[in-house]
Inverse folding.
């Protein structure tokens, strides 16, 4: 009987993937996304003998969305979360907070945990937590912050909590409160040098198919089900708008090609995943590794399709690499251009050649890949001439589609300090006080969610109008190009390609019609 009870003993550690909420006057709904960070954490802990159970608090469809107080919330209710906590009765609950704009939800979850059971230790990690560890821990609902890379620090923390005489002072990468409620911040933890030493993701800890089917109606995906994977960590670039440096620093480490494709094969064979999204911050930095990944996919005869939706550094590519990507199943590549102005690119921290970027985009088109170039407008010192250069490059690059995002100056990015220095923004007090100022928070959320902040030369409304102009002029230019049919015919190498082209043409026609009547880019992209 004792053995049987031990076998079914509930885990003492839970990991919660947060729900998302937005102001009631916002139309934004953020659905659940697979918590790769929590999965990596739980997979590592399992190999160390500590079972973690992951709970998804977010919603998979609109039926799980409802008004909660002053916000529109998509995910489990407080009552449902309370039931989970009472049923599991854990000693530790881990939460992640990547972006400052979602901290209010994470804090609400932490406070609910303490309300249900004040003895549970609440641990927070992620980008926002790493930067604001000291101020975060002023709130009674949070006990520990894991700063930077989480696996080793979280494991050592759990071991300490489970011990009879816990000592937290020697755990690198940890911030905590002592017996007098003083916040202490330990030394930074070194990053894991070799990612291959980490265990393979244990996908049995999640309902993989539920996440994979979430996008099955997305017309821009070639196959379904689709899942995102991460094959490397970090980026050595110095882009001023980037936030990943808070956790990974200005470094890059990649898993080997074999380990990467082992994971792809596992998802392909065991879960029926047929399309993959490489979600790395800089997937192709090591050219040999990137080529080896393509070769592994080909040699194992994995009949998959894959894309790079987070963008890929064009200067890491060449024609042989692009050709091998195509052969291994890549059908759409997103190029992180960000700006077509040399002056703005120098400010951003991109000193790579635009002519090389154009060459890569056009070659990818010639061999039948779909191409997207991403752009950001609204940097603090950007002039109208610089914005025109960006729009011009996008139109002349040959890319099938271009995005023109309004800059969101997140507090954990370097560009935030420029706006603050110029008196254009000030969120600094929101997270420095013991009590979160919700009015200021909502103002920040609106700016970061919608993007676009007044700059030295433009108001927010002016930037939005320029954004609409950029999309409209790009679409008109691209429609004129497609009328020759040659760019589209280059994409077709199979019946599957032909069906995909027809589907894109149908959706493209709707976009063209919207572009003539849209008042904002939300009309174009989300309706």
């Amino acid at each position: 009987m004792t053995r049987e009870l031990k076998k079914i003993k509930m885990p003492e550690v839970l990991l919660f993937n947060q729900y998302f909420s937005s102001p009631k006057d916002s139309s934004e709904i953020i659905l659940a996304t697979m918590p790769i960070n929590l999965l990596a954490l739980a997979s590592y802990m399992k190999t160390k003998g500590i079972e973690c159970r992951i709970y998804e608090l977010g919603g998979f469809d609109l039926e799980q969305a409802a008004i909660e107080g002053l916000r529109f919330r998509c995910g489990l209710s407080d009552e449902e979360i309370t039931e989970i906590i009472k049923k599991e009765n854990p000693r530790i609950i881990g939460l992640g907070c990547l972006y400052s704009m979602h901290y209010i939800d994470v804090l609400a979850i932490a406070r609910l945990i303490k309300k249900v059971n004040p003895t549970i230790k609440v641990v927070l990690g992620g980008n926002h937590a790493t930067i604001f560890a000291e101020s975060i821990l002023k709130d009674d609902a949070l006990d520990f912050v894991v700063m930077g890379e989480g696996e080793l620090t979280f494991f050592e923390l759990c071991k300490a909590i489970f011990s009879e005489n816990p000592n937290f002072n020697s755990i690198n990468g940890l911030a905590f409160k002592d017996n007098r409620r003083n916040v202490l911040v330990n030394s930074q933890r070194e990053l894991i040098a070799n990612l291959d030493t980490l265990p393979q993701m244990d996908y049995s800890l999640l309902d993989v198919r539920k996440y994979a089917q979430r996008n099955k109606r997305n017309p821009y995906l070639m196959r379904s089900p689709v899942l995102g994977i991460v094959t490397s960590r970090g980026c050595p670039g110095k882009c001023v708008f980037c936030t990943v440096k808070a956790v990974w620093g200005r470094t890059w480490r990649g898993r080997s090609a074999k380990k990467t494709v082992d994971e792809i094969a596992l998802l392909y064979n065991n879960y029926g995943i047929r399309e993959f999204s490489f979600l790395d911050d800089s997937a192709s930095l090591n050219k040999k590794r990137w080529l080896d990944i393509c070769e592994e996919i080909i040699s194992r005869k994995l009949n998959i399709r894959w894309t790079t939706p987070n963008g890929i550094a064009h200067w890491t590519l060449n024609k042989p690499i692009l050709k091998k990507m195509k052969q291994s199943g890549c059908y759409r590549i997103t190029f992180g251009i960000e700006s077509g102005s040399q002056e703005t690119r120098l400010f951003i921290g991109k000193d790579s050649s635009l002519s090389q970027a154009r060459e890569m985009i056009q070659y990818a088109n010639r061999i039948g890949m779909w191409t997207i170039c991403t752009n950001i407008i609204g940097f603090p010192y950007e002039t109208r001439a610089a914005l025109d250069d960006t729009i011009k490059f996008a139109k002349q690059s040959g890319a099938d589609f271009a995005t023109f995002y309004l800059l969101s100056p997140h507090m954990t990015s370097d560009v935030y300090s420029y706006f603050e220095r110029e008196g254009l923004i000030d969120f600094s007090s929101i997270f420095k006080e013991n009590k979160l100022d919700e009015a200021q928070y909502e103002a920040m959320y609106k700016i970061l969610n919608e993007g676009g902040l007044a700059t030295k030369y433009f108001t927010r409304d002016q930037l939005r109008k320029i954004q609409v102009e950029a999309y409209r002029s790009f679409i008109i230019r691209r429609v004129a190009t497609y009328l020759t049919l040659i760019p589209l015919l280059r994409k077709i190498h199979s019946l599957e390609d032909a069906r995909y082209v027809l589907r894109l043409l149908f959706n493209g026609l709707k976009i063209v019609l919207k572009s003539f009547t849209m008042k904002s880019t939300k009309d174009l992209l989300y309706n």
Remarks:
- Confidence is low (pLDDT under 50) at residues 1-8.
- The first helix runs from residue 2 to 7.
- The longest strand covers residues 330-338.
